[in-house]
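I am writing to request your help with a piece of structural work I have in hand. I am sending you one protein, given as its amino acid sequence and as whole-number tokens for its backbone shapes. Kindly check, if you would, that the fold set down in the tokens agrees with what the sequence suggests. You will find the record immediately after this paragraph:
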Amino acid sequence: MKNVYLFIKNFSPKGGVESFCYRFREFLLSKGYRPYVVCASNTSSIEKDIIETGYLRAGRFTKTWSYLSRSQKILSQIPPNATSMSFGSIPGCTIFRTGGVHKNFLKKSIKGYPGIKGIRKRASRSINPINYYNPVIDNLIYNNKNTKFFISISKMAADEIKSCYNISEEKIRTIPNGVDTLQFNTDARNRNRTHARSIFDLSEKDNVIGFSSTNFELKGLGSLIETLSTLPDSYKLLIAGNRNPEKYKKLAKKLHVEKRISFLGYVKDMPQFYSALDLLCHPSAYDTFGSVVAEALAMGLPVITTKNVGAASLITEMVNGHTIEMQDIEKKLKHAIPAMIQKQHNTGNNILSQNDCFKSYLQLIEN
């Protein structure tokens, strides 16, 4: 039985990269491997083979530094015949799954904070030590000779690391995040649509837009609410995500659209959420993949997102979705939303399944 060490800051069945790592661990078990998880915190119910390092809790810099230093010690002690794989910023693993480069995140994501918000965000970032420490970690990661492969979650992420670091093409594998197509598929949406709409108190006459994220500001919820106020009353918005919504509830009330918006909080049954929709909007300022885009496409939903989202490469323009620029985003959304709601049916055939994604990872482990 071959041992595989998975490094991730927070081990959990919830979240983006967290749940992805959680499911990959289960896949490895099913293939006869013994996966160990090295994490700062474990919020799952699993205890076997979980190495919880803990971390110092005084700010992001201290958390990152303490987890990295403790994980590096464990990495140095793993058997030479074991494979190590990082789902976070741990240099020196055999395989590093990358979502891009931190300095590119700082440069591109600031577009999600226009006007005075952008000035404040730049100021707060300039005094936050994590924004000086993360580029140091990136240098250690991408210049580390112990890493055999870099898994890029999108072409966008691959282009970032190639433009910033001298990494050979042979070491980079672009493998988009897979979707659990047993749950997320067009048949499930068609079968559950009427029931899902009744649960969310929606009628067939409603034009239902969906939004899902744990970072409302960066992913463009404010722009989407402002756009909703310019659309007819038949347009409704369902919001999935457990970020504090009070700021956005106030904005909705100010724009007199509060009765057309449902803040759902954490949604456990995402296939049901997608089944109730006519369209998913993901107007993110920066996202090196965007799993919600892939899931919605797999469900047969049209998707509107921005060119700053890695999963935009899955979209065939004006067939299963539409990609827009960040400039004048509310104006672009106002015209794109009605047009794309008419595109309610697509096959989702170009979406990589979760199982095929994990098989590609396994090939690198066995290489």
Remarks:
- The chain has a mean pLDDT of 93.
- The first strand starts at residue 3 and ends at 7.
- The domain at 186-341 is CATH 3.40.50.2000 (Rossmann fold).
